[in-house]
Amino acid sequence: MTLIRNAFRRLHYPVDIIAQCVRWYLAYSLSLRNLEEMMAERGITVDHSTLHRWIIRLVPLLDKAFRRHKRAVGRRWRMDETYIRVRGQWKYLYRAVDTAGQTIDFLLTATRDAAAALGFFRKAIRHHDEPEVVTIDKSGVNMVALTTLNAGKPEEETITVRQSKYLNNLVEQDHRNIKRRIRSMMGFKSFRRAQTVLAGVELIHMIRKGQCHHPAGDGLSSAEQFYCWLSEKQAAQFSSSSIL
Asked: Is the pTM higher than 0.85?
């Protein structure tokens, strides 16, 4: 698997074991110690700190590979932020979905203000172009960010902004899938590590929604698609070599 070999100078474990451990951690409600015990039951001795290092090394490469094959999203966005605890303090995960529930983008920030919201919108627009309509709740800082984006544009090119708590239920419900997964992680100890792990969780969530279009991935399950991106060249025949 090309991405795994690029991520590590030396490989002390088979690439299929590394790939499976990373996917299981991101996809299921497991702690690192849970995963360590599961591997031990299969005769594989791997420390939880090693598992963590695999995840931190691989997720940025996976995210980059996924974005190259991400399906186009709609231009009517629902945007909201939710709380994430990092080192005992609340941080803010900005997220947006389109009207079909597809994830637009996400950004973990230390503050909840206009600058943070503007940073999120600029990241999302950089990857997906400008939306036609953005629906937000009654948050004033999100409105300030969108007003900043619209400043100086001709009226026909401005982003239409709607403030409606009930129309934003779609993205609020989507938050639950992310919060459910991180609940078993027992909190993040580092802001940068939180950013990386959340990117991996979001990636798995988008795979399950069918948001990736890979030339070799048609008809594959979400697990098979994940291993497909690790190779980047062909779909991994993982089912024949998975750990039983």
From this structure: yes
